[in-house]
Amino acid sequence: MSCDGDLWFENPISSPWLTSVAIKAAELQGRRPGIVFLRKLQEYLFVDKLNISDEEILVQCAQEVNLDIEEFQKDLHSNSAKKALQCDLKLTSEMDVDQIPTIVLFNQKDEQEGVKVTGLYPYDVYVKVLHEVLGKKPRSAAKPSLEEFLQHYKFVATKEISVVFDWSDEKTEKEMKKLLFKQVVEKVPAKYGTFWRYLGSE
């Protein structure tokens, strides 16, 4: 997701600790709610330039993605979410993960060490690494339709769509304009890139 760097001057984040605990608190309500909460937080930060270290903003975000608010607020100040975060930090330390992005891939069927990939690479590099870890060529899952993808993620960048569907920027814009005309999405211009908000029903 593209980032408007002005946010560091206009509304700087005081500390990432509470935000990180909030992500774990959301994950305690399930993997899917945790992912939805994280994506909405990224939208708040990178597009709306909100201070996501502010507890009120975190609660607002949780409300917007339909988390159980009472549970979320309780977990935000509980040991459960803090312990979950500390486990993540311990795991990253044990695996020598000190850069973002980093992916560590394991094969559950053998006891070999995982393969760590640090940095951003073209998609086919990850496919090759998966092949190496699995000992066979990975089978791709069927791609969703464009509308299914938008319905699932709700708010996406043009670049995300281009990468997922392996389309040129021109093809992506063309397809999104069709959905814009049908009022399935709304266009959200940003300083660096364009975003699309899904308006359709569930």
TrEMBL record:
Keywords: Isomerase. InterPro entries: Thioredoxin-like_sf (IPR036249). Coiled coil: none annotated. This is Putative DsbA family dithiol-disulfide isomerase. It comes from the Bacteria. The keyword Acyltransferase does not apply. It comes from Salirhabdus euzebyi. SUPFAM superfamilies: Thioredoxin-like. GO terms for molecular function: isomerase activity.
